[in-house]
Amino acid sequence: MTRELWSIDARDPRKVWAALVPALEGTGAAILPHPASPSGLPETVPENVAVVVETSGSTGRPKRVMLSAAALKASATASDELLGGSGHWLLAVPAHYIAGINVLARSHFSATVPVMMKPTGFSAETFVAAVAELKAERRFTSLVPVQLARLLESEDAVAALASFARILVGGQSTPIALLAAARARGLAVTTTYGSSETSGGCVWDGTPLPTAQLRLVDDRIELAGPMLAEGYLDDPRRSAFTFREHDGIRWYRTDDIGEIVDGVLRVRGRADDMIISGGVKVSLAEVETVVRTLPGQSAAVVVAVPHPEWGEAPIVITTSAIELDALRGAVAAQLSAAAAPARVMLIDEIPMLAAGKPDRLALASLVLK
Fold first, then answer.
1. Residues 107-157 pLDDT 10s
2. Residue 328 lies in a domain
3. Which of 80, 92, 270, 281 has the most CB atoms less than 10 A away?
4. Whole-structure pTM value
5. Is residue 241 a contact partner of residue 248, using CB atoms and an 8 Å limit?
6. Structural domain harbouring 30
7. Can you give the residue ranges of the AMP-binding enzyme C-terminal domain (predicted)?
8. Contacts 24+ apart (CB under 8 A), 292-296
């Protein structure tokens, strides 16, 4: 049995909301929210699929993740348990992000109507105006790190953020300094880890949601639970490789490596970000984390380049000049000599994807020119 699939213009979150509710209730077509007209979209999907989420494709070709209403409800229910019950949600991220879909789905399952910001023109002023529309005392929102950083620059926005019972921050790694600054202002910030394949964040502050499971297989993070996706649309081979059953449990094999310290997950970076430099394993994500703690380097990006002596080496791409020896010393002191960047590349502007993440493919190409 199949179900009709509609592409919905995600530039207007009200259209996504209007189509998502019947999709979740099983009375309407499945939807693929998208900021443009996606190509190659089939007319139907399996009957139990309610939402298809297209990934950003930051490290390769985009994937179309199929989510059931049951998976989104399981995510919402587990989230409510940690949040201490339902509340009024503010949609501040684009409605084609899994985080945005989650805000809408949680609102539906708690029988509330979210306040919806348009994703274009996000600013402290528009955020404060949207917060004023929230009616309930218990209020929640999801942000990406760059939004949180922008809001912390405004006293009015900080006051608005302080009215939230919980602020979820995810979509990418949250800089330690940014998280500390938000919490120092008394903000109830929780970092989330997950993906479209897990109906969004299913690990909060390093701990799985009540119905989620976490394990490491050769340092690779794997996740399980009722919030897992059905697989990838029209891609059975990738689905079979990524979603695997073991001892009766279906696991999602992520592209990330991590470690568990005192019962808390620490994401070390992407598996394909691990390089061998001079015979030593180096995580580009860990190098980037250290670099971003240095003055003026909060937006710096670290990529790998071939090196005639070491095989591969990290280099730092930044818009703010920094002395190489000081940079190498800081990284070597916290990680290892092999992790010390080989050079610094200064550019005018970091290219970004629509999802608000650095375009690492474009940066890697730029370095190799």
1. 999 999 999 997 678 999 999 999 999 999 999 999 998 899 999 999 999
2. yes
3. 92
4. 0.81
5. no
6. 2-266
7. 286-357
8. 292/175, 292/177, 293/175, 293/176, 293/177, 294/322, 294/327, 294/330, 296/320, 296/322
Q: Classify 222 as helix, strand or coil.
A: strand
Cβ neighbours of 307 (radius 10 Å): 16
Sign of the dihedral through C-alpha 169, 71, 10, 82 = negative
273 part of a folded domain: no
The reply to whether 156 and 297 lie within a common domain is no
Number of CB atoms found within 10 A of residue 170's CB: 25
Nearest by Cα to 303 from 364, 229, 240, 219 = 364
Beta carbons within 10 angstroms of residue 129's beta carbon: 13
Are residue 170 and residue 259 in the same domain, yes or no? yes
Residue 289's CATH number: 3.30.300.30
pLDDT at residue 61 in the model = 62
Taking only the tens place, the pLDDT of each residue in 245-280 is 999 999 999 989 899 999 999 998 877 788 888 778
Q: Is residue 271 part of a domain?
A: no
CB atoms < 10 A from the CB of 142, how many?
A: 27
Average pLDDT over residues 23-51: 94
